[in-house]
Structures
1.
Amino acid sequence: MEEEKKKRKILLVDDDEMMRIFFRDIFWMHGKCDAYDVEMASSLEEAEKIIEDEKTRPDIMFLDIFLSSTKKKGNVSTEQVNRSLEFIGKIKESKVFSNINIIIYSGQKYQALEEAVMKLGVDGYLIKGELMPKEIISFTDQIHGTTNH
Amino acid sequence: MEQPIIKLNNVSLWYEKGKTTELKALKNITIEIKKGDYVAFFGPSGCGKTTILYAISGIDRFQEGSILINGRDISPLTNQELAIFRQTGIGIVFQQFNLVPSLTVLKNVALPMLFVGISSEKADKEALKLLKRLDLLDLQDRFPSELSGGQQQRVGIARALANDPPIIIADEPLGNLDSINAKKVLEFLKELNEKDGRTIIMVTHEAWSLRDVKTIYHMKDGTITEIEKTTPETIAQSIASRLNKQLSSSNGEDKGKDSKGGDANAESISAHLLANFLLRGYSLDEISRFELFVNERFSNKIDKKEFHELINKPFKDGGVGLWKKKAERVTEYLEEVIDKKHSISSICELIEKTPEAAIFDEIKNVRQWLIEGYTGELNASQILALDQVISDRIRNYISREKVVQLLDLSSNKFGVGLSFRAAQILAEKLELLLEGVPNDKINVNISGEKEISKDTDATNFLKKL
């Protein structure tokens, strides 16, 4: 009896439309649609809805920690970053959601912030401008591989 | 079964639809291209082959049917989505190179990465890897105008690879290259297909660029007339069989019911093959007239001397306009083929062994010989103008007097801008070449390499300038 290989669900949370299209296209163009379903959200609220619904709940979430609501004239508001941290904390503490792999996928990296998110149990901190399309795929495949067993 | 990387379902595309100038460029095209295939759309100009590339890459919108890339329909995509789809998924290699003139080689290659949000440092780092792969590292700080055509095309390929796309589209990529560089580009495309596993789609009207292709879509009037899967065999055999098919399908309508193909066609296939190889870079009109004379020679309607005269005669007078030395070489070539009973494989072997230089190489060689000893500096636009004059003269489009005029005419009037004396001397030297200076003095040989005696009268003249 042949069982269809289970597709992994990826959720990208990013307020930049171009980045969302680019991210989705990477998996599409490199023929990874058999392995992954890529869903996109532009805000934490939208992401929450997708996570709560069992049918759309992702296995891996890429999250831009500096979403537009957390950006003020190019500066990062601490209060808003805290919202993202709370969001991550909520997922990791929940029995239902804690299996979701969370990858921070942002434009910048700050050491203190990286330490904080790693403590919360995220699986990686990637900087957008430093990864070529294939590197994003191999990173995801790796996460996929390690969490499969 | 793995789904095709590209699938066209009943695609029709009109230009200027609804206007009096309406043109249906693609007519109900249905094809499937598998991942890792090396495909060519092959046919005469105006058959729709470039339009198909534009439709697949989302540059031209088609009005009917659907195009699926990895199972996803691209017709509902917005312009922004299509732009990102091209940046991520498709690398395009253009005939005209299309490099940004104000950017260095390195920045030209890095540019597509910046479009998708890669940082400048990372983009430069990745661009350097690509330049290394294409043997262009030494040229990273040069500007496109400082490069030869072959180098520019290699930069064009590096740029097409910038975002590591799984599909490479090449639109007549050899059109502006000499034979050495054309060969290099073909080898590289093959490597991108075989080593990297990328899907390559090429558009071409030149049979010889099909040598590594695995699937050929023959096109005519906006339709696919035949899909041909090729199997690994010698280049000679495969090209011959492709031309054979091409010719028998186009002759089918004209020849009527008695044509059974086979041996009856062998001569015309040979003529077609020779015309395409010996006259690389010449216009379609020149090539087809040449083919006609080859056929006449094959059927013994004309003899060797008459053939030579016809191909040497100016095009406007009913000839092909090959310059004297070339006409001589080509005549000898043909006689050798006739001796061997013009079998297609023997022609192909001959061509592979001693390839005839494309007209680009000939012009370049003639130019180098002409300016040898000239002490002034020629800039890039003067060289272009000089090449044009040489091309027009060796094809007998212009007279010797016109050559002097054009060489002397200032470069802002599209001349070469030489002094009158230098123009006269260069023109004289060119005439010497066309008249056929004895072989020991100048010999632009069959492979396009030149051996020149430095002591011709003309060079001595130039040294005195």
2.
Amino acid sequence: MSKLGALLDRAPCGFVSYSDDSRIAAVNSTLAERLGYDADDLVGKPFEEILATGSRIFHQTHFFPLVKLHGRAQEIFMILRGRDGEDVGVLCNAVRHERDGITFTDCVMMEVRERRKFEDALLEAKKVAELANATLEEQAVELELQHQQLQELAAEMEVQSEQLQAVNEDLERQRAAADEANLAKSNFLAVMSHELRTPLNAIGGYVQLLQMGVHGPVLPDQLEALDRIDRSQRHLLRLINDVLNLSRIEAGHVDYRVELVVVSEVVESVMPMVEPQMATKSLRLETAIAPRIEARADREKVQQILLNLLTNAIKFTPRGGSICVETSADSTSVMLRVIDTGVGIPPDMIEKVFEPFIQVDTSRSRSAEGTGLGLAISRDLARGMGGDLSARSSLGSGSLFELRLPRESKPAESTPS
Amino acid sequence: MSQDVRKRNNVKVSGNGTQPMLFAHGFGCDQNMWRYVTPQFEDDYRIVLFDYVGSGKSDVSAYDAKRYDSLVGYAQDVLDVVHALDLEDIVFVGHSVSSMIGVLAANEEPERFKRLILVSPSPRYINDSPYVGGFEQRDIEGLFEMMDHNFIGWANFLAPAIMKNADRPELGSELTESFCSTDPVITRQFAKATFLADNREDLSRVKIPSLILQCSDDMVAPLDVGEYLSRELADSTLRVMKAVGHCPHMSDPEETVSLIKEYLSSPVPA
């Protein structure tokens, strides 16, 4: 080995020379030993044997065409594969030389450790940045999408809101129309009732005159007929009075004379009016009236309501049943309850009984006679006095009607001055 | 349009013959790789050379990441060149990945192609047992790492300069000179389209007779792959070459030329 050859063999860089058929023609000890071989072991072996797998592709697709086409290559990074599998990164300069009629590729290889680490870090940072960028772009797209969805949602809500407003306006119009119709109806009923009462009173008066024999003797058959006319006239008059009352209440034409009313006194004043009917049907009366409870109410209206409730209870309670009248009170209200053991009201009808002209069982009420307006009037009156009228019932075991009235007004709360 | 494609793909036409020989370069290089081969065919054929968009001296501004996401986009480059020159009766010569690009193009318009010459072809580089492609996924990652390291300076210092100086294309020539690549990002995407491709199912649709030139000791496309191709391709002829490596047209152009000439002089199978 020449002196220069010996120097090259131990120079601080790798050297390898290979032919186009990829056979290693020469390799220096520095490179061979770095890869764990003896230089002699490698001569004749394929050059690719000392390349990592990825480098083999890179060599065939990039390095070899480059050297072949340009005659040289500079600063190409390649990863060599040591005998034990270790990856060794090198920078490679190559040049093509013809010797003895054969062209060889002569490569000088310089291991890059620190520089590779630095480059790896740079690449890693670039990758992270690219990934972050991609993520940001994705997020931007996502945000844009959400923004669009929100806008769509907002537009949808806007439409719904407009629709709701339209429905509201429609309802408002319908309600105004209904109020107007109701008022017209009340006025009509008031006028009609008045117009009907006048001739009915005339009928009643003349029947009485006939019964008294003012117009001559009356035969027993005729008396009986007059009696029927009289009863029918009174029923009709009652009906008209009820209608008139209801329409006056609904039209707001009722005056309330509100005062402190002792509830037990009202009950005492009403009971005599119904005792005869209760006796006729053998109904038992039970009372639980607290003395001296006062309500703020119109005495006559309370009497009217209680009378209506008792009349109903008598009407719908079978013979031998019982009716209970009781009172109670809390801090704000006085309650007056009428409880019967009658036929009761189906649950789905419990509110309807307060509507005008409604009766639960038409066939029964016809036989019991009634206008179907009593409860409607009573509730309107109760509410007109700041109270209420409600019902509870179970079908077959009786009903409970509760009149609630405001208690005497509470003393004004003292406020610090 | 035809002028645009000629410029876009840096199309070069030469030769005295009428039947076209269309040479398609492989990944990592450009039409220059055929320079030791094409002179031998100029007397008898019309030689057509081109660079894929993103390679060599192609018009990089025509690059569309979506189009070139798979080999189908590159096959469209081949067909665009075919249409621009209105080529018929074509002898297609493709190296490496261009073998499969040629298969895709020929399947698309078989009436235009006469023969396919596939130099170091592979329908799939990654092993898929029992299929042997020669590589594992991590080997391909190793290739990417190599590319990243070699393009790192270019990508970080030159690329921004080129982007800011579109009127100074000579800035980009440095990489083109050294690696036949116009842009490392494009090259990387080409590498992905190439090495992650699986074109095995396209082989049975090939109706054009083909020559498979298989190097002995090819690290990129091992012998198993050549044998697989010869089984799957109807009317194919497999020739295992004395040449080693992956680029016989560069490492042993004489053998390459002679095998191609021998094949072309044989009658086309009926």
